[in-house]
Amino acid sequence: MTDPRSYATPPLARYAVDRAAHRRTDAEWLARAWDTAEVLVVDVAAGGQALVREPGNGAGTAALVLLPSAQCPPVAAERRLFLGEAADGSALFAVDAPLPALPGTRAANLRDVGHLLADRDAGLLTTAVALAGWHAGHGFSSVTGAPTDPVQGGWARVDPAGAQVWPRTDPAIIVLVHDGVAGPAGRCLLGRNAGWGGRPGARRFSCLAGFVEPGESAEAAVAREVREEVGVALADIAYVGSQAWPFPGSLMLGFEAYADPLSPVRVDEEEIVEARWFTRREIGAVYADERVDLGDGDALLLPMNVSIASYLIARWWRGD
Question: Which of 2, 29, 82, 86 is 20 to 30 A (C-alpha) from 201?
């Protein structure tokens, strides 16, 4: 999963572990399973970092470091996050704690290495970051203000009155807008968000995106967000796929849609400061590590490989 042109699914949509939800309410089983479990340590305070090992052969891959439970940082039993069961039936947990120093490893976050991990590890890290991040931000009841404690293997929290809350996921849409033309001359519409820092001499463009509002369908959100951000009307909105984006807790719903490239592009200047059409030839040049000039000396940057935006752009580029 190193080259966005080869993605068969969105990078963070992969999971190869049985979540074994029926185990979450069995406190005795969880306690026994911990003794022989493998544990992923994630440090939420450090941006959700975990330890990875890289082969050092230039293959562009990475593997998570999972520790035997006896070697992981000590945490209270209720703060062990049950991730599921491996193919051999062994239990997999995560804990939120400072990362230990281990030779031959480095700390990395999901944005850095999510696309470089194998299916099992990509799913484990995505789930662990999402779950640990939720716990870090939900120590108190939103209704009463009372403190809450983790239960059910980390998949819920409970207040002193017994009221439970569960991890939430916020749906967001992201769309690759294109002109429907096949071949190198076909074009897609990408935008640059006002909050992106970029780097000297280059600017990053990506798909248009936004949160689904209450009472709104995902398809309606696609049309609304594009209209609000760049003033363009869409047709043929089609769902493509989804992936988690636990920063802190979104589910990105990926779409593609047609727009007339002759329609004027009017950016809202609050969220989107720049938007323009790019040809399939230009996107391919970036994939070939060629410099694509934006017309003012800056080079075109595409989204990070771990994002669903990268998957949507590559899928369109391939003509899928």
Answer: 2
